[in-house]
Write a structure and sequence with these properties.
The complex is a heterodimer of chains A (266) and B (260).
Chain A: E1 5-15, E2 21-32, E3 37-41, H1 48-56, E4 63-68, E5 71-72, E6 80-83, H2 95-107, H3 112-124, H4 140-152, E7 158-162, H5 170-186, E8 190-194, H6 198-204, E9 207-211, E10 218-223, H7 232-236, H8 238-254
Parallel strand pairs in A: 3-8, 3-9, 6-7, 7-8
Antiparallel strand pairs in A: 1-2, 1-4, 4-5, 9-10
Chain B: H1 3-11, H2 15-33, H3 44-53, H4 56-90, H5 92-107, H6 110-121, H7 126-149, H8 153-161, H9 166-203, H10 209-218, H11 222-250
The chains are: A alpha/beta (266), B mainly alpha (260).
The structure holds adenosine-5'-triphosphate and magnesium ion (MG).
Residues 14, 16, 22, 24, 44-50, 214 of chain A line the site of adenosine-5'-triphosphate.
Chain lengths: 266, 260
């Protein structure tokens, strides 16, 4: 199968206003197949968000190439949906209008069928009765769901999520993870899911990319051969803890911490 | 809600008036008891009779003249400062060149520029509007710029990822995001507008409450000047409230959480 997304020797160096430069990514190589769910874990500041910006076309790599279907990305693509770390909804719009915002912002017009589509998405993320509410009347988890519905509106082939659940409590977080898998199942897409949580990465993804400290590079790509559909059962699977401890080991090896077994990480 | 709370809730907005009403007899008594001469502090009864001595149409005439300059100057100031803020948000270079200039203009006392403006712009309405505009535009520019720059970067990235035009980015994201800031600025500016109009009338006018205060004091009609002052305070208060009402009516989402 031809890879869908490929990063070829990608590096990115930010130039600051004062002329200094920050090397965020260095020689990153990987491939993602169509409709694959990839999770990215790595220490803070290792360039995960930079990876996201590169794939979405918001910034251009300073070295190498980012390709989708063998075509270099030179500007933001139409078929990419982004879910940000914070929900960042527009406080003056209702939930429905927030979900419709990308269409309105891009094309200026919203057809009746778009509205129906938006309402379906809102129902899918479990906010059917809240479509006319304003964001400030929703909980953090509900707001994040609106953010997900918004990213899905233009039915993107690629869904990029930057620590989408990091602001949520553990329970809501797990629930949202399963919900995301359900959506992914109904509308298959290529997903790049950035997270700080190793168990979340293993629970959701087909493949986990482990990144190293800055300048970030891909340290390891681990295939997760856990059966689908994933559920709370999956967490009890001995394979599951195998995967998480393997990834954990990898991260601690980077940080030069010897004894892994006594450490507990989320 | 208990009855006590209900009454408290109803009375809350009236409290300033009630306090004022309660103070009036005290004021009257002090003036009478200490025999305060009326050019130092006229008593409420003197002010009221001074107010009644002037025909109501004359009061309205003067008030309208001041209100007109304040509102037109205020509108002009909005029309200038919002686009200026947009320009500064779009261009780092212009921010660096324009902003220090704005600070210089802001820190030059308007009272000192006023006579110059009248020489330059003639004795019509133009210098009065210019003075009002000068005194009100700074808080507006600062509020609008701060608000637009406070837009979460994620929303800007969302706009960029949709390849929307910069005009849409400003119009549909940054400007609405600045609304809470802009209204804070408007509330400050609208009271400054009255001050601007009065300063302008001090310098050159044959009408308006500012003119009337000056006219009255020059004839030692201090109670009459006080009555005009009270007109001015009421006008400021009403304008301030009006801005708040507009915000509540059309932009209720932008009110601070405690006021919703
Ligand atoms: N716009 C920018 N300008 C300059 N430097 C930046 C910019 N964005 C990120 N960086 C730098 O690039 C490096 C990688 O940043 P990035 O945001 O990609 O990290 P991250 O892995 O997403 O971190 P976190 O997990 O904390 O979100 C950091 O050292 C950061 O300081
Ligand atoms: Mg990040």
């Amino acid at each position: 199968m031809q890879p869908y997304v490929s990063f070829e020797h990608v590096g990115h160096t930010y130039t600051l206003a004062n002329g200094q430069s920050v090397n965020a990514l260095n020689d990153v190589n990987f491939q993602i197949n169509k409709h694959e769910f990839v999770a990215v874990v790595g220490p803070s500041g290792c360039g995960k968000s930079t990876l996201l910006r590169l794939l979405s076309g918001l910034i251009q790599p300073t070295q190498g190439q980012v390709k989708v279907f063998n075509q270099s990305i030179t500007q933001p693509r139409d078929d990419v949906g982004i879910v940000f770390q914070k929900p960042t909804l527009l406080p003056w719009l209702s939930v429905l209008d927030n979900v419709l915002f990308p269409l309105k912002h891009k094309y200026g017009v919203v057809a009746k069928k778009d509205k129906e589509q938006a309402l379906l998405l809102i129902e899918m993320v479990g906010l059917k009765d809240f479509s006319q509410r304003r964001p400030d009347q929703l909980s953090g988890g509900m707001q994040q769901r609106v953010g997900i519905a918004r990213a899905l509106l233009l039915d993107p082939d690629i869904l990029i999520m930057d620590e989408p659940f990091s602001a949520l409590d553990a329970l809501t977080r797990e629930e949202m993870g399963f919900e995301l898998l359900k959506i992914w199942n109904e509308k298959p897409k290529t997903v790049l899911f950035i997270t700080h949580s190793i168990s979340e990465a293993v629970l959701l993804a087909d493949k986990v990319f482990v990144m190293s400290e800055r300048p970030g590079t891909l340290a390891e790509a681990i295939n997760i051969d856990l059966p689908r559909p994933r559920s709370l059962q999956t967490i009890q699977d001995s394979l599951f803890s195998n995967y998480t401890s393997r990834i954990r080991k990898h991260i601690y090896k980077q940080a030069n911490i010897e004894d892994v077994s006594t450490k507990t990480v989320a | 809600m208990s009855i006590y709370l209900k009454i408290k809730h109803k009375l809350q907005p009236m409290l300033p008036f009630i306090t004022l009403l309660a103070l009036l007899p005290v004021w009257e008594f002090i003036c009478w008891f200490a025999k305060v001469p009326n050019f130092v502090l006229p008593s409420p009864s003197e002010i009221i009779s001074a107010f009644l001595n002037v025909e109501i149409t004359r009061w309205l005439d003067h008030s309208w003249a001041t209100l007109r300059v304040a509102l037109l100057g205020f509108a002009l100031s909005i029309a200038i400062s919002i686009p200026l803020a947009v320009i500064m948000v779009r261009s780092q270079f212009l921010t660096k060149t324009l902003f220090p200039l704005l600070v210089v203009i802001q820190s030059t006392p308007v009272v000192a520029i006023a006579p110059l403006l009248i020489v330059i712009l003639g004795s019509g309405e133009a210098p009065r509007l210019a003075i009002t505009c000068l005194i009100t535009f700074f808080p507006l520019v600062v509020a609008a710029t701060t608000g637009m720059l406070a837009t979460p970067p994620e929303l800007i990235e969302l706009s960029k990822s949709l390849r929307a035009s910069p005009v849409k980015e400003i119009w549909q994201i940054r400007l609405p995001y600045a609304i809470p800031h802009i209204f804070s600025g408007l509330k400050v500016a609208v009271t400054l507008a009255i001050i601007g109009a009065v300063i302008a009338e001090f310098v050159a006018a044959e009408k308006g409450l500012g003119y009337f205060v000056q006219f009255s004091t020059s004839y030692f009609k201090i109670p009459q000047a006080f009555a005009a002052l009270i007109f001015l305070s009421i006008m400021s208060l009403v304008l301030f409230k009006a801005v708040h009402w507009i915000q509540t009516l059309y932009f209720s989402w932008s009110l601070p959480a405690q006021e919703k």
